[in-house]
Amino acid sequence: MTLRTATPDDLDAIMALERSSFPTDAWSEAMMAAELVSPHGRYLVDEEAGFLVGYGGVRAVERADDADIQTIALAEQVRGRGRGRTLLRALLAFARERGARETFLEVRADNPVAQALYVSEGFVEIARRPRYYQPDDVDAIIMQLDLVGWAAAHAADEVDKAGWC
To answer: Which of the chain's termini has less CB crowding within 10 Å, N or C?
Structure first.
């Protein structure tokens, strides 16, 4: 697994994965291109053997109190190996570095695997948007994470792993 910052050169590979991961509600190429060059966030790609197998993005305006996980997608053949968690944690760490104190995201109500990942990292459901994902009429679950607490917990985890406690 190799994570690196996405560049505009990654757009075609990102869009191929976007369309296969979200066939009915994929972002447009123009929207994704704008996200990749925005100064207000960061997109990462996950590569394996020279191929893009995942990507994720966060909108985290410098010194803003909140951030938003925009998207995370993985190729089917690499799912279930912790790559989504690694992407998520890298995006959350970036948001915290930017000064965010809390992070939000929306997840499809029919995606229990993603929901379980987010809950395991400390996200809690705060609201729902009925029929948000179209044309599928699927609700969006809005989730929130106390990023300060998350960062403190993960800093303590790193100290424990290093044997400093």
So the answer is: C
- Please report, as a single letter, which amino acid is at residue 165: C
Question: pLDDT (tens digit, 9 = 90+) per residue, 126-149?
Answer: 999 999 999 999 999 999 999 999
From residue 59, alpha-carbon distances to 23, 24, 51, 72, 82 in Å are: 23, 23, 25, 12, 22
Residue 74: is its pLDDT beyond 50?
Answer: yes
The structure tokens 């990942």 sit at: 117
How many C-beta neighbours within 10 Å does residue 151 have?
17
Domains and their CATH numbers in the chain: 2-162 (3.40.630.30)
DSSP letters spanning 73-120: EE-GGGTTSSHHHHHHHHHHHHHHHTT-SEEEEEEETT-HHHHHHHHH
The pLDDT tens digits of the residues spanning 20-34 come to 999 998 999 999 999
Q: In this predicted model, which residue has the larger pLDDT, 161 or 61? A: 61
Q: What's the half-sphere exposure (Cβ side, CA atoms, 13 Å) at 9?
A: 3
For the beta sheet containing 2-5, the strands, ordered from the edge strand earlier in sequence to the opposite edge, are 2-5, 41-48, 51-59, 66-74, 102-108, 138-146, 124-133
